[in-house]
Amino acid sequence: MHMNNLPNNNPKTSDKENYQLFNGLIKSVAGLVGVVVLLAGLVLSLVFLPEISTRLNSTSAELSSASPEPLADFSTEVVDGKDVETGLIAGNGLELVKANCTACHSSALILQNRFTREGWHSKIVWMQETQGLWDLGGNEAIILDYLAENYAPEESHGRRIPLTGIDWYELKD
Ligand code: HEC
Description:
Largest sheet: 2 strands, antiparallel
CATH class of the largest domain: Mainly Alpha
Bound molecules: heme C
Strand content: under 5%
């Protein structure tokens, strides 16, 4: 930088000083703009932070309120004594049967079969030994009770039990 203590009447020098002045002005304006932008950002983030966080909260609230839905899917809607989803007879243990016995195959395999409790047990053991069915733990007894009660073999001996409570109607010509 060329410093000159003499009175400045040299047009070249004053040009240079003008330039320096201009340059300094530009720099300070740029600096000022930078500061303003920073401040604006700060203010905006302070203003919108609560809103953003409430939005995030509401989103997570929506998510957590949405999460019971798959469970609701699993809950049982019973029409005419049968679970709408699987066709299984409504009864104690239905939920456990749905949870454990319709994971690999449909409920059809249950619906089309009739076994005694021992028969059902041996099917379960067979599936455990050959098909990767898991240990049913304490639920096994409940599941077996359900199956034995609702999918028991029909009486195969003798005559069927007489029908009761029938509303006979007259045939008309
Ligand atoms: C880990 C998978 C799996 C699970 C869980 C499972 N099964 Fe099975 N199950 C099978 C397979 C595989 C077969 C053979 C399917 C075939 O023959 O097409 C089968 C067949 C059956 C059959 C027909 C057996 C036969 O002799 O024809 C019945 C009844 C049955 N399962 C009932 C159940 C019951 C009740 C449960 C719940 C306790 C259950 N399954 C859970 C895999 C499973």
